[in-house]
C-alpha cells in the first residue's frame, strides 16, 4: 500500500511540474517563502503565473524564485526529469 501511495505521489508530482529550469546564478532566499538554489542546480517549476517570480521545488523545498535567474532545460519531457524521488517521497511521508 505504501509503495502504491509513493508511486501515486510521484505521478502527481510529475503532473504538477510545469517544466524544469537550471540555475544560471546562485540565489539566496531573502524571505521565508523563497527558494534558494545554486548555479547549475535543476529546479522543478510548479507555477509560472507571475512572469517575474515562479514557484519551484528543489530537494523537497518549495518556494518562489526570480525567473531571470534560470534558463529552461526541458518542456514537459519526462525523460529529462532529474528529480530526487526519494527526497520527494520523504517530504510527502511527513504530511
Automatic annotation (TrEMBL):
The keyword Signal applies. SUPFAM superfamilies: SH3-domain. InterPro entries: Endophilin_SH3RF, SH3-like_dom_sf, SH3_domain. Residues 16-75 form the SH3 domain. GO terms for biological process: synaptic vesicle uncoating. Pfam families: SH3_1. Residues 1-23 form the signal peptide. GO terms for cellular component: cytoplasm; glutamatergic synapse; presynapse. It comes from the Eukaryota. Keywords: SH3 domain, Signal. PROSITE patterns: SH3. This is SH3 domain-containing protein. It comes from Pavo cristatus (Indian peafowl). The lineage of its organism: Eukaryota, Metazoa, Chordata, Craniata, Vertebrata.
